[in-house]
# Entry
Amino acid sequence: MHKKNIAISGLTAAGKTTHAKILAAELGYSYVSATEVMADMLGIERREVGLGFWQKYGDIIARVRDTTNLDRELDNRLKAMATEDEQLVIDAWALPWLIPREVCISIWIESDHHSRTLKAAVSDDNMQELSWYGEFISRKDDDTRERFLCIYEFDLYGTRENFTLEVDNSKYITRATRQDSDRGIDAFAPVINSSAISLLELENR
# Structure
C-alpha cells in the first residue's frame, strides 16, 4: 500500500543510519545508504560504515573529492533512486534539499552535539577519550557544512523547510554505554516509525 520513498537526514551520529534501517524493516522497504553507495563508487569494501568507515577511509575520500565531482555524482545517483524507484528508506545528507518535497517524505533527525558525541563513542566501542569524539563530530560538521555550501549553496544549519518532519532524539542517551544507547534506540524508534507511518497514510488519502 505505502509506496512513497522516505529520506532520513541528520548530522553525524544523530542516529539516521540506525533508525533508517529500523524504519525500513518496519515498513518492509529497502534500505539505501549514501555511504554504501559512495563506497561502491570508490571500489571500497563496505563492510565497515559509519564512524569506523570515515576514520579508515577519510583521507582517501578527501583526495577523491579534491579531484572529482564525487559528491555531485553520489547525489545524482540518490536522486535517481528517489524519483525512479519505490519503497525505499534512503539514509543521506543532502537529498532532501535536492529533490521536490512531493518526490519523497523527508525526515530530519535532530540531535545536539553532546548526545551525538556519546553515540559516536558507543558506536566506536569507546576506543578514544570522549573529548576526541566531540572534536571529531565538530570537524565533520564543519567540513560537511562547508562542502554543501560550496557545491549547492544550502546550509545544513539553516532552515528545515524542505523536510516533512523534524524529530529530536537528543534526550535519548545520557551516557556513553551500549546499554544506554540501546535503551535510547528502543525508546526513539517507535516515535520515528509511527510518525513516518502516519505521514505515509496521509499521502495515500
The beta strands are 5-9, 30-33, 88-91, 104-110, 165-168. The chain has a mean pLDDT of 89. The first strand starts at residue 5 and ends at 9. The chain has eight helices and five strands.
